[in-house]
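Inverse folding, one chain.
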């Protein structure tokens, strides 16, 4: 039997590990067995690898190594940044500003803080998913201690004006945190230049291993310890470090951030090709997100009269992997909070599919995926109840 072609178009959910990161990680697994806190050579070797990886992560975002804390990934970094900064700065105020389209790890952390008496303002977005900056200006008050706005949205790819928000925060003596999980490798981060006080990142979104990430916390910003115990991560997050995974992350971030311009150019060209082909092959579709201020790997499309979840499952049978909304929301029948926040109706949100390209996605991959997609959408529309009720969807 001929092997089925696989086209992976869900790089926002996770990226395959790069060969280079994999090799360095496996090498570390084989060679490094010491505990990085032990004083003898095997321990010192592990500690050296940790320090080298920390320096790479720091360099990639323009931070100092002493401002980087290793974590288990984006969700942990976001939870720690928001709860840890809020609680440590409570003496200054109890008001936090975030947006309606943040990742659940930000929104749920804010909800948890509401139960502790913090007041949260959720800033709305426009129909392109852009944060309403003027609403942040209005929301800032004497009790505001933290603003947390994502750098780029994981569902529709809209990039937020984080420099302007960081400047606003600074002018009001407010700490600014950004969830940069989707933006590392796509935006050139210089935390000092932009004025970011805390930043979350996750290795498996830029070619590193899963289950490892980092939180940057600017020197002088107060944050509670996340895990009490030993002195690892300068006493802020105790527990023996996963050195090989951290080594893999170090290599991946170095590669992802040293070629941003070239990678974006390549992605932009494939994205343009995808959009041209899809609009020729399938009618009555709606493209979501900002047309220009956006991640080049993200294509979010609503297919009127066809259910996103059904498209996903039928594409899966053809070896094409995509997602509806975000990976963490899959399995839930709730419509995407991001699309609803952008003013889409429930039907449109339910008919949305997210395709996220990778550095190795080719035009042939796009042709294969779109060939299958065209047939699937046609089939679904022909049996769709929406078509009967609306009686207007062209096949
Ligand atoms: C914007 C954003 N923030 C945070 C996360 C969570 O990252 P992790 O999977 O490493 O916990 C994700 C993952 O999808 C994300 O897209």
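Residues assigned per position:
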């Amino acid at each position: 039997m001929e092997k089925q072609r696989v086209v992976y178009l869900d790089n926002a959910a996770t990226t395959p590990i790069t060969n280079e990161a994999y090799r360095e990680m496996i090498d570390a697994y084989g060679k490094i067995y010491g505990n990085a806190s032990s004083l003898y050579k095997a321990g010192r070797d592990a500690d050296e690898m940790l320090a080298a990886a920390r320096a790479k992560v720091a360099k990639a975002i323009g931070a100092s190594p002493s401002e980087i804390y290793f974590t288990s990934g984006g969700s942990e970094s976001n939870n720690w940044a928001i709860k840890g900064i809020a609680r440590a700065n409570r003496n200054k105020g109890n008001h936090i500003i975030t947006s309606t389209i943040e990742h659940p790890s930000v929104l749920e952390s804010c909800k948890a803080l509401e139960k502790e008496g913090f007041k949260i303002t959720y800033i709305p977005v426009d129909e392109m998913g852009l944060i309403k900056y003027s609403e942040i200006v209005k929301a800032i008050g004497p009790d505001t201690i933290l603003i947390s706005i994502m750098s780029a949205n994981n569902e529709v790819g809209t990039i937020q004006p984080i420099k302007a928000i960081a400047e606003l925060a600074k002018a009001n003596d407010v700490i600014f945190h950004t969830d940069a999980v989707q933006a590392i490798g796509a935006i050139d981060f210089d935390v000092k230049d932009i004025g970011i006080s805390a930043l979350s990142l996750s290795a498996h979104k830029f070619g590193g291993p899963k289950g490892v990430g980092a939180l940057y916390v600017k020197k002088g910003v107060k944050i509670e310890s996340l895990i009490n115990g030993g002195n690892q991560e300068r006493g802020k997050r105790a527990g023996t470090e996963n050195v090989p995974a951290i080594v893999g992350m170090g290599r991946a971030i170095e590669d992802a951030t040293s070629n941003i311009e070239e990678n974006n150019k390549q992605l932009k060209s494939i994205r343009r090709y995808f959009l041209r082909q899809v609009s020729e092959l399938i009618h009555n579709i709606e493209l979501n997100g900002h047309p220009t201020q956006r991640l080049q790997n993200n294509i979010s499309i609503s297919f009127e009269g066809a259910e996103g979840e059904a498209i996903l499952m039928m594409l899966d049978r053809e070896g094409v992997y995509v997602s509806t909304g975000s990976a963490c929301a899959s399995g839930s029948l709730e419509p995407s909070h991001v699309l609803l926040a952008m003013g889409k109706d429930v039907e449109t949100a339910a008919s949305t599919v997210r395709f996220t390209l990778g550095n190795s996605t080719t035009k042939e991959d796009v042709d294969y995926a779109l060939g299958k997609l065209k047939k699937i959408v046609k089939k679904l529309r022909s049996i769709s109840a929406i078509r009967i009720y609306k009686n207007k969807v062209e096949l």
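Residues 7-15+259-390 form a domain with the Aspartate Aminotransferase, domain 1 fold (CATH 3.90.1150.10). DSSP finds 14 helices and twelve strands in the chain.
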